[in-house]
Amino acid sequence: MEVGATAATSEGNGKSIAINVKFTGKSIPITVPCDSTVKDLKSLLQPLTDVLPRGQKLIFKGKVLADEMTLAASEVANGAKMMLMASQGLHQGGGPILREAKPRPRERSIQNENKLVDVKQRVSVDKSRLERWKATGVIALSDSNLKAIPNEVWSCETSARVLDLSHNSINHVPSQVGCLSSMQKLLLNVNEISEESISWDGLVFLKHLTVLSLSHNLLSNLPSALGSLTSLKQLHVANNKLMSLPDEIRFLTRLEVLKVSNNRMSIVPSTIGECSSLTEVDLSSNLLSELPESLGCLLNLKALHLSHNGLRSLPCTLFKMCIHLSTLDLHNTEITIDLLRQYEGWEVFDERRRLKHQKQLDFRVMRQADFDEGADKH
User: Fold this and answer.
1) Of 148, 208, 150, 143, which is closest to residue 178 (Cα–Cα)?
2) pLDDT (tens digit, 9 = 90+) per residue, 338-354?
3) DSSP code at position 51
4) 20 to 30 A Cα–Cα from 27, which one of 132, 163, 285, 361?
5) Residue 4: other Cβ atoms inside 10 A
């Protein structure tokens, strides 16, 4: 596929045509083989618009183009212009328009807004609070209007077990974090942290870290150093701008929960299959069109969330090998129930899923008897 061309290819060569598709006020130039069908064109438009093919409606000369028709039969020639309309909800990733990952707005009372004493300064003179941190091992500073981590935190050293800095405006995690060598939980979600502003050289010293939460930040990639955190059981990096996961995730063999929803990932590394302890994986709202077959190696997997992706198939051994899988969310993907029934092990999985939700069915919370691709999202 060639993007950005106008009418670079003439009809004379009989191989391809250039057309322009108007969508959300913008014109998308795209070159396609002249024998393409409308469905082929929709597939090419998917990564450019984040709209799933079944959610696309292409309009040319006032008519809606049928999927099975060729562009030639639809009288779409070189230089043609058409309009794309998207059905609400039928998109992958963050939607038709790329949204910047920003921290959620925080509500504060008028009383807090009127305080003139900076939280960082208040902490520095509050000796009793520092003593409490050292005694309990819990440093609780969430929603404290912080723009930087108070230096007093580093004085806790080996006594600190939990550091909660979530819901602040912190944009820098220095290498001093490595001095908290007994840290078990590090919560940094809803801040302004990018990959350049966090010291992974410091994080690798946290050999006892079991929970790392960096959701709702500005990360566009995770470094190979992530693989050094071999004690991790939970990794939360949802609502960032991640394009992929590092291959070194294979070393996180104790990882049980992986949440990477609402990012920009178009590929999942095959090494994820070596994370043998995974029980829950959330890859929803990304740009995935396929999954690695190695997902079928996650023998302890219980919940798999894949909604709002461009997926057309699942790993062929998923239902056969993942014998504990009972929650599967395929809402707003291209995967149909007819396709699912073709997979080996589908019947056993479906029975397992039904048994799990039997109590809700009894109370008529979930009335559908057949599989609903979005039924398991909760």
Assistant:
1) 208
2) 999 999 999 999 999 98
3) B
4) 285
5) 9
- How many CB atoms are located within 10 Å of the residue 334 CB? 20
- What secondary structure does DSSP assign to 132-155, as a single string? HHHHH-EEE-TTS--SS--GGGGG
- Among the four given CATH numbers 3.80.10.10, 3.40.50.300, 3.40.50.2000, 3.40.50.410, the one describing domain 228-377: 3.80.10.10
- The pair of three-digit structure tokens given for residue 131, joined into one six-digit string: 């003593």
Superfamily of domain 129-218: Ribonuclease Inhibitor (3.80.10.10)
How many Cα neighbours within 13 Å face the side chain of 62?
A: 0
What is the rounded CA–CA span in Å between residue 195 and residue 198?
Answer: 6
**CA-CA distances (angstroms) from residue 225 to 281, 319, 364?**
21, 32, 48
**Structural tokens at position 288:** 């995935």
Predicted confidence (pLDDT) per residue in 86-132, tens digit: 875 566 665 543 334 444 444 444 344 444 344 444 444 367 888 99
Could you give the residue ranges of the DSSP H alpha helices within the chain?
38-49, 110-113, 119-125, 127-136, 200-203, 318-321, 337-340, 346-356, 358-362
CA distance 327 to 19: 42
CA separation for the pair 105, 84 (Å, rounded): 33
Q: Looking at domain 16-86, does it have CATH number 3.40.50.2000?
A: no
Q: Where are the domains of the chain?
A: 16-86, 129-218, 228-377
